[in-house]
Amino acid sequence: MRAMTIKLNSTALTALAAASALLLGACASSSYNPNPTRDTAIGAGVGAVAGAAVHGSNRTHGALAGAAVGALGSYIWSSQMAKQKQQMEAATQGTGVKVTQTADNQLKLEVPSDISFATGSAQLAPSLEPILNRFAQTLNENPKTTVRVVGHTDSTGNDAINDPLSVNRASSVRNYLAARGVASSRVSIDGRGAREPIADNNTEAGRARNRRVDIFVGEAAPT
Known about the structure:
- There is one protein chain.
- Helices cover 47% and strands 13% of the residues.
- It is an alpha+beta fold and 223 residues long.
- Strand 3 (145-151), helix 6 (159-178) and strand 4 (187-191) form a beta-alpha-beta unit.
- Helix 4 (79-92) packs antiparallel against helix 5.
- Residues 1-8 and 10-72 have low confidence and may be disordered.
């Protein structure tokens, strides 16, 4: 593998040093109190400078990539989040649901189509209901968290069909959780249609993986 060489000009180095000093100075202060809005902004600034410096000729792309990295830290991984992950791992064992901790400390449930939705449908499959029942219980036990449900489709059909279908799938999950005591205000929804595949849409197995719902749970860092 060829080694990557990173060249930083003097302006980028100066800006990066200044931004880093701001972040480190805030953290080292004896009166420092975590503030996710402030800290995320500072982190994003440091990341943006670093990204622009590294990418050189493509500063816009580099700044955006760096900002995304620097902004990590808006969520915390508390003991309650760790407990919720263990509970969901136990509840989904053998179902095909993938339970992970994301890089920014969110709990992610990746729910495949074979237990969630039939092709072209936003109707919850009966096999998903026991999982969502347990999930609702864990959410009610940790009211500090918020939830984001993102629906996806395979590439069959066009955007006019897939975009609303993906949103409707996410909405079905939110409605089911709400019926089990989870406040709708805690749950945001989004639909990505076929734009974010995780497998090859040229095979049936790949399309089945792409027809999915991703559920994210986050606990905000204390202010």
